[in-house]
């Protein structure tokens, strides 16, 4: 009797295993939303759209990219933190993902506890620029001018905790200068003032800066990257320009709400890695000034994000930047 009961139990358990596998394989069943917590038309929004287009074809479901700016990227990020952890809402995370909780009061989520990583996608060089009307061609000359006119030169600040903001803050610290921040809800909104010379300085995504560098309206002083980039080969890196400690590398990663199932994350990770490995996707991203990283599993990306979160707690403390 006992033998028969055990046999029945084993058959029942075996019958359940295919159901569990089928459940995992059933993802995704419908559209996936990717929230880009910055203004439409900016580099993060465009990166999300390029990756989503290819990933959608791989996963066989539509992907909707929703630009949701506001609150220094906090509005869009909060919406994903509060979304159902079912794999149908993703967040395009950038550096502000790990810095905003330190720099902005009242943030309700934690970059480590409230999310889980899917995959790192790319890194993005940032370019230090000035309006050409300023008549300055090197970073050292700009620093000299800033020292002669302390607090009089201003800069485009597209969001607290963004790489553009932190690069400028670290440049000020390492160079011993003082610039006045003019905040904007995203880089695109500050461009008119920069081009007319109402703003003196900006750290811009390479894709944003390139057209204006080519037509002579902006002058590049340095590129924030480990080495010079092919699009502007004559522009030195921050290290070559004499300020290596000011470098902040910008990155893009995809994350999901905490408690998203492992099997769902694995499917999403595989699709994203396939998407960024596609030569056409790589070229489209490079045209945006964004460079694809080596494919990673979710655990590797999670380790990167944890390391970045801890690093920036320490760095921001050393900069004495108060939460706003």
Structure explained in plain terms:
This protein is an alpha/beta fold. It folds into 2 domains: 30-123 and 251-319, Bordetella uptake gene, domain 1 (D-Maltodextrin-Binding Protein, domain 2); 126-246, D-Maltodextrin-Binding Protein, domain 2 (3-Layer(aba) Sandwich). 46% of the residues lie in helices and 19% in strands. It has helices at residues 2-25, 43-59, 74-81, 96-103, 139-148, 163-175, 187-196, 206-214, 238-241, 262-277, 279-287, 298-319, and strands at residues 32-36, 63-67, 89-93, 115-124, 126-131, 154-157, 180-183, 202-205, 218-224, 250-257, 291-292. Helix 2 (43-59) packs across helix 10 (262-277) and helix 4 packs parallel to helix 12 (298-319).
Specify Rg, calculated over alpha carbons.
22 Å
Mean pLDDT across residues: 89
Helix-strand string = HEHEHEHEEHEHEHEHEHEHHEH
CATH topology of the largest domain: D-Maltodextrin-Binding Protein, domain 2
How many beta strands in the DSSP annotation?
11
What is the CATH superfamily label of the largest domain?
Bordetella uptake gene, domain 1
Going by CATH, the architecture of the largest domain would be: 3-Layer(aba) Sandwich
Helicity range of the residues?
A: 40-55%
Give the CA-based shape.
Answer: globular
Question: Largest sheet at a glance?
Answer: 6 strands, mixed
| Amount of beta strand | 15-25%
Q: DSSP helix count? A: 12
Low-pLDDT segments, ≥5 res: 1-24
> What is the CATH domain class of the largest domain?
Alpha Beta
| Major β-sheet strand ordering | 2-1-3-10-4-11
